[in-house]
Amino acid sequence: MALTGRQVTVLGGGIAGLAAARALALRGAAVTLIEQAPALCEVGAGIQIGPNGARVLEALGLGPDLDRVGTRAEAVELRDAAGRRVLRMPLDRARPAWRFLHRADLIDMLAEGARAAGVGLRLGTRIGKVEIGSGRARIQPEGAASEDAGLLVGADGVQSVVRPVLEGRIVPHFTLQVAWRALVPAAGGEAPVATVFMGPRRHLVTYPLRGGRLVNLVAVEERYAWAAEGWHHADDPAHLRAAFAGFGRPVRDLLDRVREVHLWGLFRHPVARNWHAGGAVAILGDAAHPTLPFLAQGANLALEDAFTLAACLAEGDDTAAALARWQALRAPRAERAIAAATGMARLYHLRPAPLRLVAHAALGLTGAIAPRLPLGRFAWLHDHDATVLPRAGGPRA
Q1: Is 75's pLDDT higher than 60?
Q2: What is the 3-class SS of the chain, one letter each residue?
Q3: 352 pLDDT above the threshold of 90
Q4: Which of 207, 244, 247, 307 is catalytic?
Q5: Domains of the chain as residue ranges with CATH
Q6: In the annotation, is 207 catalytic?
Q7: What is the structure's pLDDT at 224?
């Protein structure tokens, strides 16, 4: 039990941090999680948990909670801007089932799981400085003295204070795309389907949450006007409606119900070259590999990271070797997933019109002949089981 009694400090109370805290605590580590916000909470937003993420939650003992708060998905549908169906990809054979969740429900589930595993939570604490020693790290909360962190796990997102210590500060690249996120009351009778409405230089994704009482929407537009990164920037719903005014009645009716919306710029961050250092510190989730949202894999990859990190550390007493093995397992997969997500934007935003019509016709034909084939292209992503660690020296996960 290499982790029994091991002091571990996790920075960040989001999905990656809470999952890592529970995974490490279940293997015997003495875990403290530090979050700068005064409470563990999330803005209203939906999230998709695919089979790969669900396998991790089940392995962490949270499968019943996932069943309780998640809406089981039936399919993904691609539609054109007018609302005509281009392609339907069934999800009914997915094992575990694909689910739609409110992000706040997932955070609550993970937070309760962390507490039940014995994780200590320190809220309202902002870390101003991180120092790496030999086998241990030190952190300095703002306005306080520095303290020993033991093994430090940076799960503190794209604004991580830990990542710059590993490889300096990197300026992200604005993708010339912005995204709006909103929750609206359901009109009633919404099918448990993720629907993508595709138009030139923009697309919109919808799916139901909380038993069909709410509809989550994410709308992406290509534009030159810069927008700040982060989910918490309020915008005028009129701007969203104007951007999608050329779409059909199904989209316009949905946008008419939007009363509150948040806007953020989509930035491309390089995958970190160094995920760990000195056997004293590691980063995971968005701190290591932020991804664009076009494959709904950010949370799923973070869950995979968390479980694999704990599993590698539990294999033996050589922490530096365990962290090196963990990065070797995770980095190639994160890079492949990020590249695939980036490519999806080109499919959704096709122009000019003749190219778009030909592509949509080809997708429709494929769906009519082999409806499961398009999603099968991503079997490497969704069928992955991060809870089964390959033998040391064997093939990568």
Answers
A1: yes
A2: CCCCCCEEEEECCCHHHHHHHHHHHHCCCEEEEEECCCCCCCCCCEEEECHHHHHHHHHCCCHHHHHHHCEECCEEEEEECCCCEEEEEECCCCCCCCEEEEHHHHHHHHHHHHHHCCCEEEECCCEEEEEECCCCEEEEECCCCCEEEEEEEECCCCCCCCHHHHHCCCCCEEEEEEEEEEEEECCCCCCCEEEEEEECCEEEEEEEEHHHCEEEEEEEEECCCCCCCCCCCEECHHHHHHHCCCCCHHHHHHHHCCCCEEEEEEEECCCCCCCEECCCEEECHHHCCCCCHHHCCHHHHHHHHHHHHHHHHCCCCCHHHHHHHHHHHHHHHHHHHHHHHHHHHHHHCCCCHHHHHHHHHHHHHHHHHCCCHHHHCCHHHHCCCCCCCCCCCCCCC
A3: no
A4: 207
A5: 7-66+103-171+270-346+376-382 (3.50.50.60)
A6: yes
A7: 79
